[in-house]
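We emphasize that the prediction below concerns an isolated chain of 278 residues; any contacts that depend on oligomerization or on bound cofactors are therefore not represented. The input was used exactly as deposited, without trimming of termini.
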Amino acid sequence: MLSPVRTDLVEFVDVSFSYGEGERRILDRVSFSVPRGQVVALMGASGGGKTTVLRLVGGQQVASEGQVLFDGKNVGQLDRDGLHTARRRMGMLFQFGALFTDLSVFDNVAFPLREHTSLSEDMVRDIVLMKLNAVGLRGARDLMPSEVSGGMARRVALARAIALDPELIMYDEPFAGLDPISLGTAAQLIRRLNDALGMTSIIVSHDLEETFRIADQVIILANGRIAAQGTPDEVRHSTDPLVQQFVNGAAEGPVHFHYPGPTVADDFGPGAGRGGRA
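Result of the prediction step, given as a C-alpha cell string:
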C-alpha cells in the first residue's frame, strides 16, 4: 500500500538554533510549514535567522532543539546517504548566482547533471537547452559568466538550480543588486517556474513589493521568533508594531537604530575610559 503524499513538504517543529554554546539564539522555538506547490517568503530584518532556516533545511546546520522535517523525515537525523538523497530533491539559488567563472553558461547548467547522473552527453545537451529556454537564455549558451549581465547570471543560476528537477528550490536573496526590469523578470520567472514545474519554493528576500506580489505565504522572522505569518495581504495589515516597521520601512520602532551598548554617560562622562575596549 502506497503511503499518502504529505501536504507539507517542509515542516519546522519547535526549532531552536544557536551557533555556539551559550550564544544568542538565532531561532527560538520556531514552528511553521511549507505546503507543496506554494511559494513561501521568509522576510525580516538582517540577522533574523532567514538564511539559517535554509541551511537547516539543506542539512548544512543541525537544529539545537526541535525537528526540521523534509517530506516527513528529520533532516538532522539523516545519515550521509540519506542527506545526499534529500539534497538531490532540492535546488538552491545563491545570492548573486555563484556561477563557475571558468565554465560557459551551458557548462554551468550541465554541471549538476554530469556530477550526479549518468546521462549521455546528448541527453545532457537536450536538458540544458530546455532549462536555458525556460529562463529565456538558450541563445546565451556559449557565453562566459563575465559576458552576461547580473540579471542574466541570476537566470543562468536558476536554470542550473532546476537542472535536476528538484521538488524544493530555495532562493537566498534572489533580487539583490538587480535593476527594476531584471528584478521584475526574476520574480515572475520564480512564480512561473514554480507553477509550471510543480515545485515548492522558499524565498529569503528583503524586496517587499516583488516578494509580496508572487508569494502565497509570508513569514516575518524577528528576534529569533515568528512575528507574523499569513498571506501577503494579512501580513501587510498586521497590527504588530515590529511587522508594521518592517512593512513600512520605518526608521523608528521595535528594531532600534543603535546597537545595544553602554550609556552615553558611561562613554563620555567624567572618568569614562578611552579606546575601543574598556
